[in-house]
Amino acid sequence: MTSGETLYKKYSKQYDAGEFWFGMTPSTRDVLNEKDVNTILFVLGDFGMVECPIDTFNELINNAKTTFKKDNVTIKHYHICISPPPDVKLFKTKKTTVFDFNSTFTIFD
Question: What tens digit of pLDDT does each residue of 20-72 get?
């Protein structure tokens, strides 16, 4: 992170299967882009955080799993799942890695 950046922080507990799950709505995505957010901080419980540049986030959202509203057309939210340390990756399914976050992961002391 650098001085002057606009950040957005999103927290997830660690779920029983081991991953961290973040739900993001299309309206949140729009606001992040409208407010010129530079970086999203995905906080992984008390393990640490991942810094995700907004351009990377927008690319990831395009590949994320989605849940649709009852009309089966409108996106309700995007699923962002991140594996725990030591191999911090965003994944679409447990078998499909979309992005490696190891280089932007900061462990909490």
Answer: 999 999 999 999 989 999 999 999 999 999 999 999 888 888 878 889 999 99
32: containing domain: 7-107
Give this prediction's pTM.
0.87
Residue 20 resides in a domain: yes
Q: Is residue 1 part of a domain?
A: no
How many residues make up the chain in this entry? 109
Beta-carbon-side half-sphere exposure of residue 63 (alpha carbons within 13 Å):
13
Calculate the alpha carbon distances from 67 to 24, 25, 32 in Å. 10, 10, 20
